[in-house]
Amino acid sequence: MIMHEMGIAQQLVNIAIDSIPDDIENPKVDKVSLKIGRLASVVEHSLTFCFEIITKDTPLENARLVIESICVTVRCIDCKNEWEVEGPVFKCPFCEDGHVEMLTGREIEITSLELAE
Length: 117
Ligand SMILES: [Zn+2]
Known about the structure:
Blueprint: H1 2-18, E1 29-37, H2 44-54, E2 64-70, E3 72-76, E4 82-85, E5 100-104, E6 108-115
Parallel strand pairs: 1-2
Antiparallel strand pairs: 1-6, 3-4, 3-5
Helix pairs in contact: 1-2
The structure holds zinc ion.
């Protein structure tokens, strides 16, 4: 559903624009790198599409969006083992306990912004 990605794209654009130093005249962003967890429910091509629409006439217009997909890792609170999962499991395979917490897999964040020269 595209409205979901539109909201995310808007937030990312706001963060990106806020992080451009104020002393740069006519800033132009060349590349935006993102980390997106596999469980963040973001469809990459929809996000890219929304990003292109809302960055028109902003310093981010025509910036390349580079998305790194982050796998889902969880940790068992009881035995402290950490492992990677493919889907929404959440039971520890080591001690068979259900007290697991997610370490990565839901993030949606900007890792870097490159300004054009
Ligand atoms: Zn365990």
